[in-house]
Amino acid sequence: MIAGISIYEILTVTSILFFIGVYGFITRTNLISILMSVELILNASIINFVVINKYLYPDVFQGVFFSIFIIAVAAAETALAVAIIINLYRQISSVEVKDTEIMKY
Hints:
Number of strands: 0
Strand content: under 5%
Distance between the termini: 52 Å
Largest sheet: none
CATH topology: Helix Hairpins
Helix content: over 70%
């Protein structure tokens, strides 16, 4: 592990990051802010995978492989979400959640 930093401190920081992301996802009305909150949640989970893997099995890289997979899925999700947001902005000139009623039909 990192010298001078315990696993509890790292897990506390990642828990704070996760709950900041959840709070941002629930309270924001801008689609870009919501997307950033989802990315914050995913990044907190990536750090948890790596830290717990390093703590339990220091010689095995399964947590790192899962983290790389999550990063790839997050990149695809971000690309798709940004494409949808750009298309929505071209149609209604807004990226607010309340203005997304046009996507219903």
